[in-house]
Amino acid sequence: MDSEETLLELRREYPDPIDDVWSALTESDRMARWIGTWTGEAGVGNTIMLLMTAEEGSEPGPAVIRECDPPKRLVVELDVPGQPAWRIELTLTPRGAGTVLDFAHRMPKSEWDASDILKGWHFYLDRLGAALIGEPVPQWDTYTPPAE
To answer: Which residues of the chain fall short of a pLDDT of 70?
Structure first.
């Protein structure tokens, strides 16, 4: 990582098998339960349109698939208006009957508050966990991130 970059890293463990977690991370109808939907042609190098449905007033935005190695690794670059792309890296590892998700967000240093962005990713990964086990997902206005 260079000095012009901010790296946010999170790790989550889910009781679900790796194929199920992969499906929740990549299939639009499953993603709709926790983060949003996408349209377009999936594949490395392709651009899909991602609509983050938990973001009020959100419009679909481009996301370029940089790496895809099912069910282990997915890397996408999200287009953020007025900013260089945000690189999101998801690495899945089986652990017993469950799965470990290592999440990394690489973004250029900017005036954005990284702690606010980190809270947002905690929110989404907690929503993923709830969606995986069929519980109601957290809502932003009442959300408190886990203690670090």
So the answer is: 1-3, 110-112, 148
Residue 99 has which token pair? 């799965």
Q: In what order do the strands lie in the sheet with 36-39?
A: 5-14, 98-108, 86-95, 73-78, 61-69, 47-52, 36-39
Please report, for the chain, the start and end positions of each structural domain, with discontinuous segments joined by +.
5-134
Instruction: List the structure tokens of 136.
Output: 């109601």
Q: Which tens digits make up the pLDDT trace of 99-118?
A: 999 999 988 776 667 888 88
Q: Are 107 and 4 in contact (CB under 8 A)?
A: no
What whole-number distance in Å separates Cα of residue 34 and Cα of residue 16? 16
Nearest to 8 by CA among 94, 90, 98: 90
| Residue whose structure tokens are 């809270």 | 119
pLDDT of residue 44: 97
- Arch. (CATH architecture) of 5-134: 2-Layer Sandwich (3.30)
Contact 83, 89 (CB under 8 A): no
CA 112 distance to own-chain centroid = 18
